[in-house]
Design brief:
The structure is a homodimer. Chain A is of the alpha+beta class. The termini of chain A are close together. The mean pLDDT of chain A is 93.
């Protein structure tokens, strides 16, 4: 079985990555460490930079996952800064910004960047479209999950259990592409 | 006269830096180029990183200036992400987040980081306290200037001309410390 190290300090994300590893047949080893994130509106650039830095620091192949909620009516805000905005404005801040806003389309995006001196840095993207709910619902997931309803669902991400979320999430889609690539690139 | 290079893509900031140079007796040479900004809640860390990268890229001593508006009722938001938040939520987004909020204290902070292979990287900080206005006023300055009223003033930064703003601004305070240090460190 493939073993992959992921750097993160987010426990909710770590739990999902480990569970995604089980789903797709790879062993996820979480390294609880902060990563260098640059300010860029493109998640891929943020993830490439973070993966390169983590690899240089740890001296071995490593993956990072960066994700963001892009709300159309807010010009893509909070996007790559979702974690900081969650900590400062929180869910209520987003709901306040979205009050009296009818167009509630949003996209949750995930980028996994895998840095390996032997093969370079590769990025894998996943996204799921949906809408911002009018109030927070559910206790599962993390971050803005209580206000994001993916298409073809009546539940927010936070109302789903981890398996339900992993069947449809942005992170799951990126993770599957990553695992497919691992299998193809490192045939064992 | 001292000559100092500053890297920025912000024309409003460039204009102020050139004018501050005239005020404090140094020649400011603006290099219109983007800089690497990391995601960090501490402006000093962002500025140190940006200055180091700019120096490495340009191969010569260089300064960067990073600033942010820290609103107390919003847990410091938008802080180091002021530029991104200005482009996405804009002034109206901040006013919406601050609607029905009585405690309107805020701090504008500026950090200048000067990177020079001979002396290392030095940071100089300035800040000005004030309040967030209830509506945008004035056409001067840039960014969130139309909604920031510094203490002991009845005008927003955007209602001041550049000389009035430079007498009291966070950027001016950081700039003065920088110039004092330059004179002391490189006596000519």
């Amino acid at each position: 079985m493939f073993k992959v190290g992921f750097v993160t300090t987010n426990k909710g994300k770590a739990r999902e990555l480990i569970e995604l590893g089980r789903l797709y047949g790879v062993e996820v080893n979480v390294i609880y460490s902060s990563k260098v994130e640059i300010q860029d509106v493109d998640l891929k650039t943020v993830a490439l930079h973070a993966a390169l830095n983590a690899m240089a620091q740890l001296g071995k192949p490593i993956a990072v996952e960066d994700s963001g909620l892009f709300i159309k009516a807010l010009n893509g805000f909070p996007g790559p800064f979702s974690s900081y905005v969650y900590k400062t404005l929180g869910i209520n801040g987003i709901l306040k910004l979205m009050s009296d806003v009818d167009h509630r389309e949003a996209v949750f995006k995930s980028v996994i960047a895998y840095a390996d001196p032997g093969v370079g840095i590769h990025v894998f993207e996943g996204e799921v479209r949906g809408t911002i709910s009018y109030r927070a619902k559910g206790k599962g997931g993390f971050g803005f999950d209580p206000i994001f309803i993916p298409v073809n669902s009546s539940k927010t991400f936070a109302e789903m259990n981890i398996n339900e979320k992993n069947r449809v999430s942005h992170r799951s889609k990126a993770f599957k592409l990553f695992v497919d690539w691992l299998r193809k690139s490192f045939k064992t």
